[in-house]
Amino acid sequence: MAVGRRRQPADRRRAQRPPDRRGTRGPGDAVSAAGAPLVLKFGGSSFATPDAYGELARCLDSRIASSGRRLAVVVSAMPGETEALRGRLHEVSPHPGGDRVAGLLTLADTVSAHLLAAALHRLGRRATVLAGHESGFTTDETFMWARLERIAPQPLRRALREHDVVVVPGGQAADDRGRPTWLGKNSSDLSAVAAAVALGADRCEIHSDVAGIHSCDPNRVTGTRLLPAVSYADAAAMSHHGAKVLHHRAVRLAERHRVEIVCRHNTEPFTRGTVIGPGEAAARAVVLDLGSRVLAYPDRAAADRAHRAFRADGVAALRLAEGPHVALIGGYTDPEATRLRHGLPPAREAGVPVTELHAGRATVHIAPDGPDAVRLAQRLHDGLDTAAGQALAPAHA
Ligand SMILES: Nc1ncnc2c1ncn2[C@@H]1O[C@H](COP(=O)(O)OP(=O)(O)O)[C@@H](O)[C@H]1O
Ligand SMILES: N[C@@H](CC(=O)OP(=O)(O)O)C(=O)O
Question: Which DSSP letter does residue 262 get?
Answer without folding.
Answer: E
